[in-house]
Amino acid sequence: MASPVKPAVSVRGLHKAFGARTVLDGIDLEVEPGEFVALLGRSGCGKSTLLRILAGLDREVGGEVEVPGTVSIAFQQPRLLPWRKVWRNISLGLHKPDGRAVALKALEEVRLTDHADAWPLTLSGGEAQRVSLARALVREPDLLLLDEPFGALDALTRLAMHHLVEDLWTRHKPAVLLVTHDVDEALLLADRILVLDEGRVVATHHVGLPRPRRRASVVEQRTRVLADLGVDVEEAA
Amino acid sequence: MTLSIAGVAARPKTATPVQTRKFRLPLRWISPVALVLLWQLASSTGVLSPDKLASPLTVAESAGELIADGQLGEAFAVSITRVLFGFLIGGFAGVVLGLASGLSRWGETLLDPPVQMLRTLPHLGLIPLFILWFGIGEEPKLALVAAGVAFPLYLNLHAGIRQTDPGLVEAARVLGYNRFERIVHVVLPSAVPQTLVGLRIAFGTAWLSLIVAEQINADAGLGFLINNAREFLRTDVVVVGLVVYALLGLTTDALVRLLERRILRWRAR
């Protein structure tokens, strides 16, 4: 039974080892176009490695990986080129003649038009991360990879960023794969949560809550996801 | 340091009622000025013989004369030309080799070992060979300056390229930069700060090489002026020559710093 729409990501039996250490041990993963998937797990569970493989940064792997269409990425560190102005950071590599206009439009979406001609090092952490998001989205990706993009931000900025990401995702509808270790973040944003442990997908949650979600609405599911991560909430409390 | 202090003091915004004195010599100048006064005193009282070291006033006087009769200007032009051409030759070699070994695996494999070995040679020790190879005309002088320039430029450019943040290269790769764009927008700009350090060192060694090279049978230039003066025990002229060397070094250093401020303005916070 072939699916009528080609999936945005199709991974079968993915295996990756660094020397004797197995990092990914037979991952199967399919992401539908426009689907928001969160990869949840402890540090070292292999989630970032999986993302790097999907980004095409690591090709020495076993198994099948199919990522049709364009892929874009935002990292935990914004990784902007400090010696190029903000707008050029967005337009470089796009190969479009009206790069500045395209960049300005993208900056408008993350509400940073005023900073188009600023040097990246003058931006705050949250602003730089918004530029990084704009840079990823301006490529109109079929698949957007987010590698803990809110990890280095303060709590307040992170809240604002959650709304922004959801907003941008609703507007552009790329398939999103968000790597995080923040359960609430995953529950707030994702359609589906995959829990990774020791290189395997050990649990899948369909969140199925109406959007926009509120913090209170995710509490019930939170306990179950945490249990999959091996955290006993009752005990912790 | 003193420049920035003066700059702040000169800004109208910081002018407060307390600041009534118009002329303020930075404290750091006290001891240098005192030393020159002491030097003058020692010369005037005859403690310091003019055969050993001329007095500051005599030096200033001779400088005026040398400028007036065109001798200094001519020597200056000759020396500057030597440094300029030596710098161009050495700079070209250093940059081409640095790029080749920084940007290509094979380049590094083939070029880096011999260059790293050669750089341990003190290049001023090459004079005897250079004289045998190039004679005693302009060529060995240019070659010495070139050798002094090429190594620091190569080493710093190469190191700068190697220090490129792999995270930025990765990001560029995923974002669709082609190889050329990765080099032009990611790798080379990130090598610039280190290369500018190399440029400053290169200018320093260029002047040093020139001074040494001009001891080789020079018949023109600052070195000739100094050597000639030595034969007539004119310590005043020797000091003038040394001061000009120092000023030239300071000037190129200031130029590179200006260049740094301009090129690295993205660092400004």
What do these coordinates show?
The complex is a heterodimer of chains A (237) and B (269). Helix content of chain A is 32%, strand content 25%. Chain A has 8 helices and 9 strands. In chain A, the strands form 2 sheets. A 6-stranded mixed beta sheet of chain A has the order 5-6-7-3-8-9, sandwiched between helices. Chain A has a 3-stranded antiparallel beta sheet with strand order 2-1-4, covered by helices on one side. In chain A, strand 8 and strand 9 form a beta hairpin. Chain B contains 11 helices and no strands. The N terminus of chain B is likely disordered. Classes of the chains: A alpha/beta (237), B mainly alpha (269). Chains A and B meet through strand 5 of A and helix 8 and helix 9 of B.
Salient structural properties:
heterodimer; A: 237 residues; 6-stranded mixed sheet; 3-stranded antiparallel sheet; 32% helix; B: 269 residues; mainly alpha; MetI-like fold; disordered N terminus
